[in-house]
Design brief:
Blueprint (H helix, E strand, L loop, with lengths): L42 H16 L4 H18 L4 H15 L5 H13 L3 H14 L4 H14 L2 H14 L3 H13 L3 H14 L3 H17 L3 H14 L4 H13 L3 H14 L3 H13 L5 H16 L5 H10 L3 H14 L3 H13 L3 H11 L7 H13 L3 H14 L7 H13 L1
Length: 429
């Protein structure tokens, strides 16, 4: 039976969807950390790496083992947030191509996934195309293509690739991408339904936790804190090492006013996966709590430098770091450089917000409109659009967007939500 993305019209997904991007607590208290004798989530790629290395010691010309080793290095880089595995992944995948230069769709798709991880989405799209020229039935290559087209801002092509992946192999990887594609178009109910299918198909504890993480983030985006908290608790019960769940829990603890618990949650995240995103979350919350965000900002800069040193390109991350440090002009420059490479809604939103922060709301306006063009339902997007409109004196648009942001999730940000309330009160008075 074919699985289809159910949409009223033909649609045009922490990044890159892979297994992995947020915060929950039941009304009776925070979920306890789960002690378990299960091996950590990283054991799966580590075991695969060891198995493929042993295979290659015995059969050094096994091109499929070289490709599998490259893919395992890439997966380990994801679960550990360590881009130092990127060169290892590239070396193994290129060795696979050296041994088998023709008909090697697995290595081409692996290199495409690596290009996506490094944010070279144009190269990823091209490599996926090369893999599909070798094997038109490769659901893996369609997944790489879907991720690349999404991030390049080509929604129709992304949806088509996701649909083809669903047709070829309905399952966890295709359901999660389909859910993200639906979310991007504001189809929240359908996104939840498809992610629920993904959860039903998940067997590994880390995959179960991943699905609960994204179901929780969908609930958070809709302001349904109770449902988000339930998914966080269930996800942590499946795999307490899933850092995205602790990041989501930090948001919920913040919404409930428990900053100490939220900071403890984020400390778990950055201790395990010190990414730019997580460290900036920590810096923002430290500032809200009246503490020094400097060390977290310094580590965010270091994490960004490590990513670029291992072949990554991330001016969006550079923009976020610069903005957090108070340099809106530099942030806008970085954001525009990212926009020149890819016209994705998240990038448009960053360009709009940095330009507004730098004092140029007129330049920000078309980017704010673009960020909201697909219909994604997100309080932060609506807030940014509303504040740009407010700065330009567009009272009607500002009212609509700020009301929408607070209706979606009145606790969407400990900093921005109060500003939205005050600005809305000014407009209504």
């Amino acid at each position: 039976m074919r699985v289809r993305i159910v949409l009223g019209v033909v649609l045009a997904a922490a990044l890159l969807f892979g297994l992995g991007a947020l915060v929950g607590r039941p009304s009776g208290g925070a979920p306890a950390a789960v002690e378990s004798s299960r091996p950590p989530a990283t054991s799966r790629p580590v075991a695969t790496i060891a198995a493929q290395q042993e295979r290659l010691r015995r059969v050094p010309g096994d091109w499929t083992a070289w490709a599998a080793l490259g893919e395992a290095y890439l997966e380990q880089s994801r679960v550990s947030a360590d881009p130092a595995y990127y060169p290892k992944a590239e070396g193994a995948l290129r060795k696979s191509l050296e041994v088998r230069p023709d008909g090697n769709a697995a290595a081409l798709a692996g290199l495409g996934a690596l290009a996506n991880a490094r944010h070279d989405f144009a190269a990823a799209r091209d490599l996926a195309g090369q893999a599909l020229a070798v094997n038109a039935w490769s659901d893996t290559a369609y997944g790489v293509l879907a991720d690349a087209e999404t991030q390049l801002g080509h929604p129709d092509a992304a949806t088509a690739a996701v649909q083809r992946m669903l047709d070829l192999r309905p399952g966890l990887a295709s359901y999660t991408r389909g859910s993200y594609d639906l979310e991007q178009h504001g189809k929240r109910a359908e996104a939840v339904a498809l992610m629920t299918q993904a959860l039903a198909s998940a067997t590994e504890p880390a995959d179960v936790a991943f699905c609960h993480q994204h179901l929780g983030s969908l609930a958070w985006a809709a302001g349904d804190l109770a449902t988000a908290a339930r998914h966080v608790s269930l996800g942590l019960a499946a795999d307490a090492g899933t850092v995205g769940l602790w990041q989501l829990k930090a948001r919920l603890d913040t919404a409930l006013g428990d900053l100490d618990a939220a900071l403890a949650d984020l400390e778990k995240v950055v201790a395990r996966t010190p990414t730019v995103d997580a460290l900036l979350d920590q810096a923002r919350l430290l500032r809200v709590a009246g503490k020094d965000p400097g060390p977290a900002l310094g580590l965010a800069r270091a994490a960004h430098a490590l990513f670029t040193a291992n072949g990554g390109t991330d001016d969006l991350g550079a923009a976020a770091v610069a903005l957090a440090a108070g340099d809106a002009t530099a942030a806008a420059r970085f954001a525009i450089a990212e926009w020149d490479r890819r016209q994705f809604g998240e990038v448009a939103d960053m360009v709009a917000w940095t330009l507004l922060s730098a004092g140029d709301p007129a330049a920000a306006l078309p980017f704010a409109r673009h960020a909201n063009a697909l219909g994604q339902v997100d309080a932060t997007l609506a807030y940014h659009y509303g504040m740009v409109a407010f700065a330009l004196g567009d009272r009607e648009t500002a009212l609509v967007q700020l009301r929408l942001a607070l209706a979606l999730n009145p606790k969407f940000s400990p900093v921005d939500a109060p500003i939205a309330v005050r600005t809305l009160a000014t407009l209504e008075s």
